[in-house]
Amino acid sequence: MTVEKLVVGLAGMPGAGKSVVVSVARAGGYGVVVMGDEVRGEARRRGLKPTPENLGRIMLELRRLEGEAVVARRCISKILEKTESKVVVDGVRSLAEVEEFKRHFPKFTLVAIYASPETRFKRLFHRRRSDDPKNWEIFRERDIRELSVGLGNAIAMAEYMIVNEEGLEAVKKQAAKVLKRIEKKWMK
User: Can you tell me the distance from the alpha carbon of 98 to that of 72, in angstroms, rounded to the nearest whole number?
Assistant: First the structure.
């Protein structure tokens, strides 16, 4: 089954700025699906705290048991439920997930968000979400785990790249420009 929604997938290492791009998309009329919410939901169902270790273990276990595209498959119904004709999907982590989305949504485009490791660590350390790293070692372990599932490949194959090193307004401007280009491509 294919659907004529415009779906924009976001791939980026933790702390790169995906949520900033999501906020720009939301302001532009996009519905939002966060892939990490599926893993956090699985942790809740199992009665586990959403720590970096627990979420990482669950993410790897789900992929091992149900395939590399498991989280994407679980998000398809959430995308379909959105009333908006444009949906942004935060947290694409592999080319298998990209292919799963493309199979269901022909108007799928992948956007990568990049920020240096030092910049990302500072952001995550100050953000203080339950799954954010408390130190550099935990940060590096999480990065390596994310790369192990194919995130680097997804970033490398993205159709568009947003570099987020210059501050909030600069990245918001880049995100708006990229989303307009994607809309122009698909919504003729």
Answer: 8
User: What sign for the dihedral angle of Cα 58, 65, 77, 35?
Assistant: positive
pTM exceeds 0.85: yes
Are 121 and 52 a contacting pair, CB within 8 Å?
no
CB 12 within 8 A of CB 114: yes
Beta pairing, strands 107-114 & 160-163: parallel
Question: Cα(181)–Cα(111) distance, rounded to whole angstroms?
Answer: 11
Q: Which two tokens stand for residue 167?
A: 């501050």
In a domain, residue 22? The reply is: yes
pLDDT digits (tens, 9 = 90+) for 28-50: 999 999 999 999 999 999 999 98
Number of folded domains that form the chain: 1
Pure H helices in 46-167: 52-66, 70-81, 95-104, 117-127, 136-148, 151-156
